Amino acid sequence: MKKIVLLVMMVCTVTGHAKTRNTPYLDRAELLYQKVWELYRVTKHGLFSEYYPNTYKPDLTYFQDNTGKKAQEVSFLWPMSGVFSATNVLIAFDSNKYKPFQDSMVTSVGKYYDNKRSPPGYQAYPVQFEKSDRYYDDNGLVGIDLIDAYKSNRNKEYLDKAKEVLTFIKSGWSNDFGGGVSWLEGIHDQKPACSNGKATVLCLKLYQVTKEQKYLDDGKLFYNWMMNHLEDSTLHIIWNSFSTVSGSPDKAFYTYNTGTMIQSSVRLYKITGNKIYLKNAQRLAKGSYSYFVKKTSLGIPYIDDLPWFVVVLFRGYQELYEVDHNPIYVNAIIKGADWAWENARDESGLIYKDWTGRRDEKKQPKWLLDESCMAELYARIAIIKGESK
Questions:
Q1: Which residues of 370-383 are buried (b: 16+ CB within 10 A; e: fewer)?
Q2: What domain range is 254 assigned to?
Q3: Is residue 182 included in any domain, yes or no?
């Protein structure tokens, strides 16, 4: 812990002298990352608070029952994973600085690990406090973070843990309605894009690291189910879920669901060389841009969705940009993020949920996921811009 505190101080020192280097997006990423550790870290548990300030304990609405859960002393798994994801991007700029943070995040996520139920998996709240539900999409996030951590430091334990996550997710697969997994373990009322899309990305990342055919086969199974059951054939974006009660899609649209499939399409193109996957990625990128991207009266592009959802879409846009070099999609989100930095931050330096700044959020508590994902976003933009230390 002392080592991490010293490293946070080093980040502060670097950002305090940002003018001496031409790395504006990396500077933003490091500053926000520093603030997350300073403002949200619950040191005695080695975890993070759901909100800043931590005295704010609202009802949380991102669970299956949508009732009865309040923010607690430490965050639930989903927002905490946002810190892990940001760490995995920042480590590409300075492995010596960020490896201790990455190791700490593996330890933190391990506090949600439940091996009392079979197969083992990660529950929504740390096991030291209570037994809680296990979501397949949460586990997909953990698996992706672990395989990304493995790629940067080659710790085989991280790879083994990512493989174990996929085993848990696959335990939720059922063959009704063509396949797919549900959202929540033991509940079979829907097969959502969030669970199946993240599973697709995890499978393909595992294949790219291990070259084991079974992971590519699994990735294609998840991918084909998603594209066959959840792509809107007119708008070319991904529906939210497939209801196993009605036997039809839930036709709500969220940016991240399309983002995971753009990312998966690009990776399948890289793996197979089959241009149909590249065309799929380009079709989804165009569809999502047309549907989601709007402009303010000042001409600033924005997307009216959760910041983390937008960042997951950006992951897909970034991977597509690296292949076809069409900047239109990444640039729209970059411009919005630029505007947010200048016009939508509070007195603590935290960014508003609404990047346009049209709603005054200076005094509003800030959610951990909304802030940690912005550190990831600015780091990803720094990669696109070719910034380095």
A1: bbbbbbbbbbbbbb
A2: 2-384
A3: yes
| CA geometry: angle 129, 133, 135, nearest 5 deg | 125
Give the start-end residues of each E strand in 236-365. Answer: 239-243, 248-253, 293-295, 301-303
Using CA atoms, how far apart are residues 335 and 332, in angstroms rounded to an integer?
Answer: 5
Tell whether 389 is covered by a domain.
Answer: no
Could you tell me the CATH number of the domain that includes residue 349?
Answer: 1.50.10.20
Beta bridge partners of 121: 114
Q: Is 249 helix (H, G, I), strand (E, B) or coil?
A: strand
Which pair of structure tokens corresponds to residue 15?
């950002």
Beta strands in 2-110 (DSSP E): 41-42, 47-48, 51-52
192: amino acid identity, one letter? P
Which pTM value belongs to this model?
A: 0.95
d(CA 135, CA 168): 10
Per-residue pLDDT tens digits for 22-80: 999 999 999 999 999 999 999 999 999 999 999 999 999 999 987 668 999 999 999 99
Q: Which amino acid does the sequence have at 174?
A: S
Count the domains in the chain: 1
Lookup: tokens for 259: 């983002």
